[in-house]
Amino acid sequence: MSESNFTTKFLKLFGIDNQGHSRRDYLNIWVPLISVGLALILGMIVIAASGRNPFQAYGLLFGDSGLIPGGPAWRREFAELLIKSAMYIATGLSVALAFKGGLFNIGAEGQFWVGAIVATFFGYWSPVAHTFGAMYIALGSFGWIAQLLHGAICIIMGMLAGGAWAAVAGYLYVKRGVNIVIGTIMLNWIAWFLITSWLVIGPMTPPSQTFTSGTFYVADTAKLLRIMMPTRLNTSILLVLLAAYATWFLLYKTTIGYEIRAIGYTANIGMEAPRAQGINISRRIMQLMFLSGALAALGGTFFILGMQYQFPNTAIMGYGWTGIAIALIGQSEPMGVVLAGLFIGALRTGATSMQVANIPKTFSDIIEGMAVGFIAMQVAVRYYLVKIIQHRRARRDPPADQEAAA
Amino acid sequence: MKALEVRNISKMFPGNLANDNISFSVEKGEIFAIVGENGAGKSTLMNIIYGIYTPSGGDILVNENEVNIRSVEDAIKLRMGMVHQEFMLIPRFTVTQNIVIGDEPHKGIFLDYGRAVREVRELSERVSLTVDATALAGDLPVGVQQRIEILKVLRRGAEILIFDEPTAVLTPEETVELFVTMRKLQAEGKTILFISHKLKEVMEIADRIAVLRRGKLQGIVNKKDTNEEELARMMVGRNVVLEIPKIDVEVGAVAFACHDLHVRNNRGYEAVKGMSFDVHGGEIVGIAGVQGNGQDELVNAMIGFSHPVSGSMELNGKNMRMVTTAQLRKEGMSYITEDRARRGLVMPYTVRENSVMGQHLDRPFSRGIRMDYDKIGEFAEGKVKEYDIRPGDVYDTAGSLSGGNQQKLILARELSMPHNFLIASQPTRGLDVGATEFVYRKLLEEKKAGKAILLISLELSEILGLSDRILVMFEGRIVGETTPDKTTEEALGLLMLGVGIDEKVQS
């Protein structure tokens, strides 16, 4: 690098420089932006077609999404946006990381639940909870150390469990040839029924409670620290940004990421090229599934330690599935996943406000769905983008030989 | 009459003038060859004529009328047909289904399969291209699959046939058959454009030959008035040493040895049936044989992709029968593959990323789990210069390089890894003269450096020119061992086809 100013040196500390990986196709940035833009335009048409005012709808949707500062409730909305987005980004990173290795981890949903239930357990389980409770009192004004440690243990245990859960699918794929999509989706149901049909209404429920009350509540020391009083914004957004950075670093700066991407690029032609160079494909795939599962489980721990404080006996479906959409919109790039996660988080935060004006909140789901649809059609989007670029170039500087021919 | 004429065709890609003002015309009933190195612009030119690319400038005339070819459909309407290098067949469909697809005879909304079969049989009789109309395309040998492609094109009424490197995938016998077919088509008045970089074939089949170099037309010559050497000079722009110099190196210790090796293919049949041989340092052992006689399975076993069923395999005296590719590489195995796209390189990876794959876990390319892309970049820059890998930007993806430059990149990577045993499996397949010469030179340098080299090739001239010892492989066995000075191409050819093999050796 020619310039060695402070900024570049500082960024280099974190491994960020412009030579980490291949020169990226700049269309990668434009495709999701255009897809989201098209979805928003089409969304307006759909709202207008239903006889409602699209400008009013979007005004409410984005005005109350927490994205735009101002208004009496902005701090609360902003907090809600970040709390939601943190979970979406976690599952989005999970799916994106697996995509990079050529695997479709459709089981982020189940891994999310596994992470959530394990975090719940370590949050209330008395040997742990009492230890940290005692520590909190003993430390006095340094009690936050106990909180940090207890939270960390819950998160780490949740991530390990979610990772192990996903690694089962990885193992079945590598050793038994079970398709990863089938394996992960089956494990989703196993996780779902283990948790909702047994743990939540059985061993993890306080004996005096009814079946519908969910599990024990976690101890106060296990809860994520709040960082913007009086809202319930907690450290989850910071943790997930750290996770996004770690994912990026893993993919583009480490030997593991180098091998994972080589495997992903050749996944549909038998992965022979990396194999012939001595890369241990089986081991990497299992590791990749573990890491992917751990990321989804991280979202699950946020759900418990930052929002619910117990595993409720109501369906909490959808965070993992949304992760797939986010990974797609984010083009499987960690930075893209962060932005896509914030976008989806904003749509979902603002959607409630639309209902006030008698506009169903499903319209935000429609926009989300159409954005994913346009991403899925990215071959077409790219095609027209290239056409437009070529057209503009041709107008700006016509090829010399054509002039000569004329 | 001129069946096809192109005038001043140019094609500009970003940063690359692929075709520069090319003009030529092809007479009706002529076999017109277009030769050039990989990346010379042959395929681009054909894709323009066939409507896949639009030219940046120039005109195309068919039957002396100016035409505007905007798509493949337009080209087909103008009675053109392309036989692609990669066949576009559906393996699970029958020959008939493959031929009629897209233009099926039908009864109402149902396919009239009976009539389709009859049509295909009539057509194949008329042009005497024998195919079994009801066989599954995927079960047929490559040569027959190509015939299906030709029939498909003919059924659509093609008068101008474009063959894009048709012999690249064929065995020598299949090539001979293809040439018979091409002559028959010529006799029927069809016009044929034949794209190739194999000069011997061009000299055999073409009437006139156009030579392209770096997007420019170097000249059009009559076959009668030229020879291989002249064509090679026009193609690469300098004299090419097609003769391989003999060098004598003192033969060292045994590097690789196998004894009574049995290997199964992926369908569970034994493809290598008891092979025993060794390779010493400082010698090139050539394995000659027709494709599909167990070479692929032998290589797979040697690089750790499959484990032999029985027999022994040793590298530098260590048992290597049940080990992984990583262990073999650690022990000093390097591997040059013919299958660059699948097995050689990760195509979406850059030159830089590809250049260290296999040694990326070693210093200085990584430390702990952290890759050192600065060091890798320096390494790649050096290799790009040393091996003259063009266009020379280490940030280009491997997939954007021409075949010859991809192979140079593979050589650069494999030869810079610590090794003493090199497996070169069809190292010049699909390469032009210049790149082929480069590969030969590198192999000889390796030999001089005392490395043990196993060369597996279908090209007899290559085997005879490079090897110190030649093993002939037929149906999974070694059916003969000889040296280049004691044999000829003809004698080897017969052995490869299993002619005159002693019963004792065979059993």
From TrEMBL, chain B:
Record-annotated membrane-spanning stretches: none
Domain of life: Bacteria
Domain ABC transporter: 4-239, 256-500
Single GO MF descriptor: ATP hydrolysis activity
ATP-binding in keyword set: yes
InterPro entries: AAA+_ATPase, ABC_carbohydrate_import_ATPase, ABC_transporter-like_ATP-bd, ABC_transporter-like_CS, P-loop_NTPase
PANTHER family linked: CARBOHYDRATE TRANSPORT ATP-BINDING PROTEIN MG119-RELATED (PTHR43790), GUANOSINE IMPORT ATP-BINDING PROTEIN NUPO (PTHR43790:SF4)
Name of this chain's protein: ABC transporter ATP-binding protein
